Amino acid sequence: MGAVSHPLLDIVKAYDVRGVVGEQIDAESCRALGSAFATLVVLPEAEGGEPRLAVGYDMRPSSPELAQAFAEGAAEAGAVVTVLGLTSTDQLYFASGSRDAAGVMFTASHNPARYNGLKLCRRGARPVSLDTGLAGVRDLAVAILTGGTEPATGTGGSVSTDDSLAAYSSHLRSLVPLDGRPLRVVVDAGNGMGGMTVPAVLGDAAGLPALPLEVLPLYFELDGTFPNHDANPLDLSTLVDLQAAVREHGADLGLAMDGDADRCFVIDERGEVVDPSTVTALVAELEIARARQGGEDVPVVLYNLITSRAVPDVVEAAGGRAVRTRVGHSYIKAEMASTGAVFGGEHSAHFYFRDFYGADSGMLAALHVLAALGRTPEGTTLSALVQDYARYARSGEVNSTVADAADATARVLADVQAGPDPVELDHLDGVTVSATDGSWWFNLRSSNTEPLLRLNVEAADEATMVRVRDHVLSVVRAG
Q: What residue ranges define each of the domains in the chain, with the CATH number in brackets?
């Protein structure tokens, strides 16, 4: 018999599931995934207790049907399922952590409307990746779908509904009180889940007291067809309307959410993007100070290897210990647990908090920025507040389409090792090349899903960064 083939084999990624609705993912496949996840993760983790599973979904037209099918498949296998309805991804993580339940979020994050997918977690919002259980879930689901096995039939399974928005909002506010001067903030929800969570957390939609904020909304209508722009703040073209609105309204800052509202980009009063590394450094300093006040000697902060070196500089100056990690939320969440880190940040605007079950929350990072600016004297701008955290010149991520990533990387390594600057190499994630005098470094990584090489360069000054960036790109693209 030949090898089994099924679209799920192509769309289960390193730490999530993402595919085209109707072609690669549908209700039938989600029912099988629900059965497999309950069988292999939810029930074994319960260890005789209640096998709880929280299910949330975003505003994409396909999400309710897919989520319901998953919930029914899990319940048939014996899981006690709570469908939370519309949620942001970080709201789902909160439900998983606060209820000690496994969790699944139906979303394709910033992908276009034709896509949907799943983000899964174990009890307590702990991550699931291909290496830690997702491959087994995929294979069992495929076996169910192709007739290789019958779905498990358990006892005591059920599906009920509940909501977590008010509890989520209250928890975030308890971690970062906003008690400073009034601020005007423009928020672009991109027609994503931020249109629901921002009014609850920053406003009074969840029944909480008003904050000293004037929130000016952009695209708060929940619409998974994304009629205004893709909900992907990493694409700087999607920030144009927000940047213009910040300047037009004389706002103190702007916030841009992605589709499932777990990431948040910050815009200063000039309409300029605040580098996520700068936000990481600012929040790290605040979290270290809070942890030290609580009696922690040397709080740990994580940063991924293409985050600015300003982050470890700030962390160590604040009395913390900086730990460098690979790129990707499953790696960072595992490190959050193993090191007891108080905070972690990525260049992609994922921010992780120990007090948020080690999970990521862009909204919690935004609250820190708002609180920090609110505590400054009247007239202090965000650009002035963060200027000390932006210490180096950065290229941002530059992608190159290549036929053979390994060959292009080998050419770059041969070139830099034969060049005039002494260098050091690090292969933690792709390859990081650093000048031994500390004047520049770059990281070259292959994409997991596309024929791309991703280049990030940082240097002590703009001229050096441009020189290194352009030279490396010329070698990469010479083939």
A: 8-164 (3.40.120.10), 182-274 (3.40.120.10), 276-360 (3.40.120.10), 393-476 (3.30.310.50)
